[in-house]
TrEMBL record:
Residues 364-455 form the Orn/Lys/Arg decarboxylase C-terminal domain. It holds the Pfam family OKR_DC_1_C. Keywords: Decarboxylase, Lyase, Pyridoxal phosphate. CDD domains: Orn_deC_like. Its cofactor is pyridoxal 5'-phosphate. This is Lysine decarboxylase. GO terms for molecular function: carboxy-lyase activity.
Length: 483
């Protein structure tokens, strides 16, 4: 039977199987939902019958040749890939796999410095030698965005033996950049370019969204279906469109990194999300555009923040509020949450709201909460803001201590002030967005510590056991490695 983009072969097979009311003498232990906590049954009873295992006819994620293979092929066709892998461990597992497949211990790889922590963890697992290229600080949006092509070109000229280049596109806030020029540059060295496109699964819809990294020629692209499409949390895709890296290597690392008991509801949601995206019509897009403009108009009516404008490089579904001096994004987000409206992300100076792929229907409620927020902001005290323009002062650099040598050094926990000048033995990661402020193996600067202290004061969540107790550093003399 020939499949089309409206079909959902994996989801349909799961429904068909569950409707036969099969008798379970297999895992999982809830036995198709018959064994479950009574108080929770009403919430879970629709999903448990399809929470199955690798039974006859249901295929196997790690050796797909049936309905999972069909679902992955439909995804590849829709997104324009040669091959698509379903991921049940989030974009994290895709980022890990593509780095492990691209380079081995001791080999060089060029990486955008403000990458997600999963990219950095992939570097450590591989034992690769990263060459970091710093992002530009964009005054118009008040944050670091992407590296410029001149820095990438310089890195390639100095390190023509790198095995891959890893970039993020778009950033968390939906901002893109002229990626095709960078792809063409990297490919002129016959080097693969790997893209963390976690926030761009919907870019394949075309206008008004920026072009997808696959369309622009990237070799491997990882997308979080759950971020912008209607998929369950952790459901993601890895797309390949290259001969520079073997698909077998990706498959090998995915079967190592992903669960041997992958969630069928997660995989089914990937099937459904792709079908949903494929079914969106031009009329649907126009309705979403109209809704976005209405929401933007509502957000624009305040003296406490600026709504950042949308350019051709921006995802229109991302709405970013830049707070006025004396206020923090964390405070603004807190007041919205008190009114029952939960933004995606807050930073020291911005709050990110994400519009969905359907019209927003609670505009009056939004405006009511917004009025309450502004009333509360009139009476709070203003305070100093964080200076972050020096976070990535070096255009290009490497770790002060390579991953392969870290096990040769002892570590100790020291106070924040004592850590200045020492090499970090652990990462310091404000979350979200999950971009390391300090990386393991990186030399800690006074600017790092100033920012950390301000983040602590403002109550930012930092993924660290207890940053107030100090930072774990490598002991002994560590000579700086020249780039």
């Amino acid at each position: 039977m020939k499949l089309n983009q409206q079909d959902t072969p994996l989801y349909a097979r799961l429904i068909q199987f569950s409707e036969q009311h099969p008798i379970s003498f297999h895992v999982p232990g809830h036995k198709n939902g018959s064994i479950f906590l009574d108080d929770a049954k009403n919430t879970f009873n629709h999903i448990l019958p399809i929470d199955l295992t690798e039974l006859t006819g249901l295929d196997d994620l790690h050796a797909p040749n049936g309905v999972i293979a069909e679902a992955e092929q439909l995804a590849a066709n829709f997104f324009g890939a040669n091959q698509t892998f379903f991921l049940v461990g989030g974009s994290t597992v895709g980022n890990l796999a593509m780095i492990l497949a691209a380079c081995s211990a001791g080999e060089k790889i060029i990486v955008q410095r403000n990458s997600h922590k999963s990219i950095i963890n992939g570097l450590e697992l591989s034992g690769a030698m990263p060459v970091f290229i710093a992002p530009l600080y964009d005054e118009s949006v008040g944050r670091f965005t992407h590296p410029d092509i001149d820095t990438l070109k310089q890195a390639l000229e100095i390190h023509p033996d790198v095995k891959a280049v890893v970039l993020t596109y778009p950033d968390y806030f939906g901002k893109t950049y002229p990626l095709r020029q960078m792809i063409d540059l990297v490919h002129s060295y016959n080097i693969p370019i790997l893209i963390d496109e976690a926030h761009g699964v919907h870019f394949s819809l075309g206008d008004p969204f920026p072009p997808s990294a696959l369309k622009l020629g990237a070799d491997i692209v990882v997308q979080s279906a759950h971020k912008m499409a209607p998929a369950l949390t952790m459901a993601s895709y890895l797309h390949m469109k290259t001969e520079r890296i073997a698909a077998d290597r990706i498959a090998h690392y995915l079967q190592m990194l992903q669960s041997s008991s992958p969630s069928y509801p997660l995989m089914a949601s990937l099937d459904i999300a792709r079908s949903f995206l494929a079914s969106i019509s031009p009329t649907d897009i126009e309705a979403v555009k109209t809704s976005v403009m209405q929401v933007r108009k509502s957000f624009a009516l305040s003296g406490f923040w600026n709504l950042l404008p949308i350019t051709e490089f921006d995802d229109p579904l991302k709405l970013t509020l830049s707070v006025k001096p004396g206020l923090t994004g964390f405070e603004l987000a807190h007041y919205f949450e008190q009114g029952g409206i939960y933004p995606e992300l807050a930073t020291h100076n911005q709050v990110l709201f994400i519009h969905g792929l359907q019209p927003f229907e609670k505009l009056m409620q939004l405006r009511k909460v917004m009025k309450s927020v502004m009333d509360q902001l009139k009476i709070i005290e203003s305070h100093a803001t964080i200076e972050i323009t020096k976070m990535f002062s070096k255009k290009m650099g490497t770790l002060s201590l390579p991953y392969q040598k870290m096990n040769q050094h002892k570590t100790a926990t020291v106070s924040l002030k004592q850590a200045i000048g020492k090499v970090a033995a652990e990462a310091v990661i404000p979350y979200p967005p999950g971009i390391p402020l300090v990386m393991k193996g990186e030399r800690i600067t006074g600017d790092h510590i100033k920012i950390i202290e301000q983040l602590i004061i403002q109550g930012v969540t930092i993924q660290h056991r207890d940053i107030t107790r100090g930072i774990r550093v490598f002991t002994g003399q560590i000579k700086e490695k020249n780039t």
